[in-house]
Write a structure and sequence with these properties.
Number of domains: 2
Strand content: 15-25%
Helix content: 25-40%
Structural class: alpha/beta
Shape: globular
Strand order of the largest sheet: 2-1-9-7-5-6-20-19-21-22-18
Oligomer: single chain
CATH topology of the largest domain: Peroxisomal Thiolase, Chain A, domain 1
Radius of gyration: 22 Å
Number of strands: 22
CATH class of the largest domain: Alpha Beta
CATH superfamily of the largest domain: Thiolase/Chalcone synthase
CATH architecture of the largest domain: 3-Layer(aba) Sandwich
């Protein structure tokens, strides 16, 4: 089939951060003002957004997302009820504050898929929402999902929205890792001592219609998601996983390092994250490119960060400016980067935006000013896909702990870390081991050529409730070993570590299995983004499991 040139443009957008709406946020950044300050209720320096009038029957988070989407609709004239529009929602924890003191019965709105459904229903959306929960890369990951839907011809417009709110659940969890600074964070600085959390919301229209792009037009010209396959909470020591994402995104955009004018990184100001990023940037040949982190202005806004920071970076590209990194003074990473505390003029037309998160996940996108890309992309059916194996984790009358221990012993695996995993991760690990069998090398596959795409209903609520009970009862210290598993994608991360999978890893949340995970995995293979994939449904809640996986590959 003949190839055609297709573009994905950035259309109307809306953000709200600790600095205010988009106009106020940009104005404050230009004046080097931070939105970070001490929050007595959480006992930490962080960024909180101003209160807004709640919509009756909706939570604070849902209200923020609805208002952001309303703004995008008002600016662009698009409608989620249109059958040419899809809604992609990104969040790490959604309405997680709703499980405080709930015992073992979380309210319906605490389920992330239900949260997204409620938002979509407000707009009478024509289709069910697509909810991405990929730890701290969720926002960038959602943008990549949206771009691929558009390039594959599934639809002509995608509204991507990301949001997370701060709560004791999140604050205490990060605090348990000793990763939170007592002052506004200082990305890449030699005196950095941790991150600053923030809350934010952003919505952005992705469209194949150039007439709907904000001017000057900016294209989402490249995007990729990868995994370190190294550790569930610690960044890679080499930076190779993030490097693979940057490399793949630039290849899709059709550019080389010399053409990149700016890099906006994750830049959380934690010791090891910033070190890892410096190595990845060097591997990508971008060490001489002006680089910034926005965390010193608005904090680390979790699932919102990728959307909000992309909106800010795209506007910086349009305005020809590289914002200085708030809090930076002296280089403090092993591989020196081109970081400055001061704003500077932008010299070029391409921006690379990156993100990294728990579970070893990484993501990168390329933003390009109009006329600056020439990549030819194949249609979604460029490659045929075949299913080669299926595995369903058996049901049992035995308690899960006993059942899964017996199943693991049958594998004769020496991995003693298995016993420290969450139950969701144990279920995924055993099922994937049975499904995959041998090594990727035996299948003739490189680590970055294999994807893992999973979906479930409960996300990580089973472990969330355990973490919340520790907070509620206050009889024992908050456990980082528990908190790290309060992210569903960590289950996929455990599989990646075991099988050295470094390709796309995306975790969807939906109220029931609609085949979303397999459908997206097939899109990845058909579009040339992967050669093979582990995909399917992987759910666990209150001792009950439902795990059905498939191995699919390019014919």
């Amino acid at each position: 089939m003949a190839e055609e040139i297709r573009h994905v443009w950035l259309g109307a957008d809306s953000i709200v951060t600790a600095l205010g709406n988009k106009r106020d946020t940009l104005s404050s950044i230009r004046e080097y003002r931070t939105g970070l300050c001490m929050d007595e209720s959480l006992g930490m320096v962080c960024g909180r957004i101003a209160s807004m009038e709640p919509i009756d029957g909706y939570t604070r988070l849902e209200t923020c997302v609805i208002r952001a989407i309303e703004s995008v609709q008002a600016q662009s004239g698009i409608d989620l009820a249109d059958k040419d529009v899809r809604f992609v929602f990104s969040s790490t924890k959604g309405n997680i504050d709703r499980i405080a003191n709930c015992g073992n019965e979380p309210p319906s709105e605490a389920f992330l898929g239900e949260c997204a459904r409620r938002i979509a229903a407000y707009f009478n959306a024509a289709f069910l929402p697509i909810t991405v929960s990929n730890a701290c890369i969720s926002g960038v990951s959602a943008l990549v999902v949206g771009q691929r839907l558009l390039l594959s011809g599934v639809c002509g417009r995608v509204v991507v929205a990301g949001c997370d709110m701060l709560s004791a659940f999140i604050a205490e969890g990060f605090g348990a890792f000793k990763s939170v600074s007592g002052q506004p964070c200082r990305p890449y600085d030699k005196d950095r001592d941790g991150l600053s959390l923030g809350e934010a919301c952003g919505a952005l229209l992705l469209t194949t219609r150039k007439s709907e792009a904000l001017e000057p037009a900016v294209e989402l010209s490249g995007g990729a998601v990868t995994n370190d396959a190294n550790h569930i909470s610690g960044p890679s020591r080499t930076g190779d996983g993030l490097y693979y994402a940057i490399r793949a995104a630039m290849r899709q955009a059709g550019i080389d390092p010399r053409e990149v004018a700016m890099v906006n990184t994750h830049g959380t100001a934690t010791l090891y994250n910033d070190e890892m990023e410096s190595k990845a940037i060097h591997l990508a040949g971008l060490e001489h490119v002006p680089l910034n982190s926005l965390k010193g202005y608005i904090g680390h806004t979790l699932g919102a960060s990728g959307v909000v920071e992309t909106v800010i970076s795209a506007q910086a590209l349009r305005d020809g400016i590289v914002y200085g990194t708030k809090g930076f003074s002296e280089m403090g990473v092993p591989c020196p980067l081109h970081v400055s505390a001061c704003h500077s003029r932008l010299k070029g037309n391409h921006c690379v935006k990156t993100a990294s998160g728990f579970g070893g996940c990484n993501a990168a996108v390329v933003l390009s000013l109009e006329g600056e890309t020439h990549r030819v992309l194949p249609r979604s059916n460029a490659f045929q896909v075949r299913e080669t194996s299926v595995y369903t984790l058996p049901l049992s009358d035995k308690p899960f702990a006993e059942f899964i221990r017996e199943e693991f012993k049958k594998l004769q695996s020496p991995n003693m870390k298995f016993y420290k995993m969450s139950d969701l991760s144990k279920a995924a690990y055993v099922a994937a081991e049975r499904l995959i069998g041998g090594s990727l090398a035996e299948k003739g596959l490189a680590p970055e050529e294999v994807a893992i795409v999973l979906a479930n209903r409960a996300a990580s609520l089973d472990t969330d409730l355990l973490h919340q009970r520790i907070l509620d009862q206050k009889t024992e210290p908050v456990s980082p070993a528990v908190f790290v598993y309060t992210l569903p994608n960590v289950a996929a991360g455990e599989v990646c570590i075991r099988h050295k999978i470094q390709g796309d890893n995306t975790f969807f949340i939906e109220n029931q299995d609609t085949g979303q995970a397999e459908g997206y995995a097939r899109l990845l293979i058909a579009g040339g983004y992967a050669k093979a994939a582990v995909c399917g449904w992987c759910d666990f809640m209150d001792g009950k499991w439902d795990v059905r996986l498939k191995w699919i590959e390019r014919k």
